[in-house]
Design goal:
With 190 residues, this protein is mainly α. The chain has one domain. Helix 2 packs across helix 3, helix 2 runs antiparallel to helix 7 and helix 3 crosses helix 5. 29% of the residues are buried.
């Protein structure tokens, strides 16, 4: 017996949900736990995020430097080497001065939340009539509002904003994953 929500889904999506609902549930629970921790200690999570991004930039810069030598022409190699060195510099800066880096990261995250909010709202409009389209829309509206609220208080919000923004987004993403996993569980039981 199939639910009305499941009937709106293509058969291949229904099959994926039947097979992977437990992984979706686990991902949802983990997202909620990390989200709560980020909300409870946003300053620590903000600095941790800056350090994590710094490490990613160091690895990316190293790869870019290695890849720079794969192109032809001294001008192109030089441009790629400069790009790699700028990436390395940004990574080192975030590792050495993560508190100062949170101001820049907060601005980037605000732009991200505003953009992802608009994308999620557009996706929800496109998914009208599908299961959980409303949840996607609510997530989009909240992401957009959070981005705008943090932008209004910028740059003083940089100390705590990254942790709070990511935490709230993880809560809603986890809630959405739990909702989808519940549908998959019902499909698997049917």
């Amino acid at each position: 017996m199939s639910t009305p929500e499941a009937q709106a889904l293509p058969p291949e999506v229904q099959q994926e949900l039947r097979e992977r609902w437990q992984a979706l549930r686990l991902a949802g629970v983990l997202a909620i736990i990390v989200g709560v921790v980020a909300i409870l200690v946003p300053a620590v999570f903000s600095v941790g995020t800056a350090i994590f991004i710094g490490i990613i930039l160091l690895f990316a810069g190293a790869w870019m430097l290695f890849d720079a030598w794969s192109v032809r022409g001294a001008g192109r190699v030089l441009v790629r080497v400069l790009w790699a060195l700028l990436t390395e510099f940004a990574g080192i800066y975030l590792l050495v001065a993560p508190l100062e880096g949170t101001v820049t990261l907060t601005f980037v995250l605000v732009v991200y939340f505003i953009a992802i909010g608009c994308v999620r709202i557009a996706e929800a409009v496109g998914l009208r009539g599908m299961p959980n389209a409303g949840m996607v829309g609510v997530n989009g509206v909240l992401s957009l509002l959070i981005g705008l609220l943090i932008l209004i208080d910028f740059p003083s919000s940089a100390d705590w904003a990254i942790g709070l923004l990511v935490g709230i987004d993880l809560l809603f993403a986890g809630w959405g994953l739990l909702t989808v996993s519940g549908l998959g569980r019902r499909l698997a039981a049917a």
